[in-house]
Amino acid sequence: MRIVIIGGVAAGAKAAAKAKRVNPDLEVIVFQDEAEVAYSACGLPYVIGGTITDQNKLVIRRPEEFAKDGIQVNTGHRVVALDTANRRMMVRNLQDQSEESIAYDRLIVATGALPIVPRAQGIDLDGVLTLRKIGDLARFKSVFDTLRPQKAVIVGAGYIGMELAEAFHELNIETTIVEKFPRILPKFDPEMAQMVHDQLVEQNIELILGDGLSKLQGKNGRVIAVVTESGKILPADLVVIAIGVRPNTELAQAAGIMLGTTGAIAVDTRMETNIPGVFAAGDCAETIDRVAGQPVWMPFGDIANLQGRVAGENAAGGNAHFPGVFGTAIFKVFDLNVAMTGLSEQAARAQGFDPVSVLIRRGDRARYYPGGREVTIKLIADRRDGRLLGAQVIGPGKTDKMIDIAATALLGKLTCHDLENADLAYSPPFSPVLSPMIMAAGALSSRLSGRMD
Q1: Residue 90, Cβ neighbours under 10 Å: how many?
Q2: Which of 140, 192, 412, 428 is the Cys-Cys partner for 188 at CB 3.0 to 4.6 Å?
Q3: Burial of residue 428 (number of CB atoms within 10 Å: 0-12, 13-18, 19+)
Q4: Which letter does DSSP use for residue 53 in this model?
Q5: Cα distance between residue 451 and residue 305, in whole Å
Q6: What is the β-pairing status of strands 151-155 and 174-179?
Q7: Are 143 and 238 in contact (CB under 8 A)?
Q8: Which residues of 298-331 are buried (b: 16+ CB within 10 A; e: fewer)?
Q9: Which of 93, 37, 103 shows the shortest CA–CA distance to 65?
Q10: CA dist 369 to 375, 399, 415, Å?
Q11: β-strand 238-241 against 128-129: which pairing, if any?
């Protein structure tokens, strides 16, 4: 049996490896239109900022390493058409533009996502970039080497925008962020997002909010300024478009593979599409929000790997299931570690819950132990039964530990009453005698029982 996988970055690479482990007798073929496979796109901003000095370290596995396990990886090959009725596809070799018809028995679509690029005047000028693929690093290097930028404008204040702002700061590039939404990080509640806003301003990152990109001005083919919708003119010799991504579904949709309400490919818990034997995983596929119970699209690297593992196992004849996500995410911006899981208070109310929340600030070690840092925790529960709905943790301290506790509590459908009695590890170098998460859960329990207001 032949399994063909379209795309080989996160979900596709994981699916190939898993399928081969489940059934070593399978023929597994991967088609990837990029030059690299199995790399960590999440590390790209850290290469740009110089934290990671060798971009090759982002590559987890190369085609020749896959070949040792009997997996055929074809880089520089793009699938241009799918015939799901006859289980065939047309593949184009991007080096010589030749095309070949390939048959398959099972198919996994892992085509990922594409950056959203507005149709603005000047969008094709030199110095206007996006950051999505490892190949984009060469374009950044070329701009740094030839244009030697002094002023950068980042259009978009999402995770990538935040990380690039820090990277450019490290390179002594004066940086402005333009965001059409009236505040940064709209998935976070306002008082938590404000902490990140203040950190950016403290680091001399200029924020222009409630204002979008209108056009780009250029001279001799190079960008020289950004013009916003309100008419502001921002001088810039480097512009990064970071307003988000969209699922890469054109190939699938043309082949009759159904899209979901999010615009990504609809799949069941086995990652199978509406067409039997055709699976989808990663940034092109939607899933279920396990708190709200609604379809959701979350193009995160860890989710892509989890989905790819399930798709690979099932394409090989298994019966694995992917139950959905809580939206757990974390990123770093200057001195702050910023994390969330589950629903924000705003999102919980929109989903029909009756949310109640607390916000506390605590140290991440015993107060007398040196090196402790502060974390700010917002914990949200449903007023009706105390069930935990979400958490946001921001600060220079160990927010990853706190958010993982909260995500595990969501997995267990714990109430805040359950969480305040959790048996978490304690020793002065690692935690206060009562974890900040236990303290937040206790405060929320008190609020729910009416002991505090």
Answers
A1: 14
A2: 192
A3: middle
A4: S
A5: 44
A6: parallel
A7: yes
A8: bbbbebbbbbbbbbbbbbbeeebebebbbbbbeb
A9: 37
A10: 16, 18, 31
A11: parallel
The two three-digit tokens of residue 57, written as one number: 């370290």
Compute the residue count for the chain: 453
Q: 225-250 pLDDT, tens per residue?
A: 999 999 999 999 999 999 999 999 99
What value does the mean pLDDT of the chain take?
Answer: 97
Ramachandran region of residue 256, left (φ > 0), alpha (ψ -120 to 50) or beta?
left
CA distance 240 to 223: 11
DSSP code for 284: G
Label residue 451 by pLDDT band (50, 70, 90). Answer: low
Q: What is the share, in percent, of the chain residues with pLDDT greater than 70?
A: 99
What is the tens place of the pLDDT at every residue in 343-352? 999 999 999 9
Residue type, 155: V
pTM summary value: 0.96
Q: What are phi and psi of 21, to 5 degrees?
A: -70, -40
Amino acid at 419: L
Catalytic residue status for 42: yes
Q: How far is CA 424 from CA 10, 44, 87, 103, in A?
A: 33, 34, 52, 53
pLDDT at 453: 43
Q: What angle do CA 214, 216, 218 make, to 5 degrees?
A: 160
Per cent of the chain over pLDDT 90 is 99
Q: Which residue has the tokens 């690479």?
A: 13
Half-sphere exposure of 225 (CA within 13 A, CB side): 9
Q: Nearest to residue 276, comparing CAs of 110, 26, 29, 107?
A: 107
Percentage helix, strand, coil for the chain under 3-state DSSP, each rounded to 5: 30, 30, 40
Residues 108 and 144: their CA atoms lie apart, in Å, by 38
Taking a C-beta distance cutoff of 8 angstroms, is the pair 304, 281 a contact? yes
Segment 137-151, tens digit of pLDDT:
999 999 999 999 999
pLDDT for residue 158 is more than 70: yes
Helix H or strand E encompassing 383:
none
Question: Where on the phi/psi map is residue 111: left (φ > 0), alpha (ψ -120 to 50), or beta?
Answer: alpha
Q: Which residue has the tokens 């005047």?
A: 121
Q: What residues are paired with 388 via a beta bridge?
A: 381
Residue 231, judged by CB atoms within 10 A of its CB (0-12, 13-18, 19+), counts as: exposed
Question: Which of 77, 118, 90, 114 is CA-nearest to residue 254?
Answer: 90
pLDDT of 452 above 50: no
Q: Find tokens 């059934």 and name the residue.
A: 23
Distance CA 406, CA 420 (A): 11
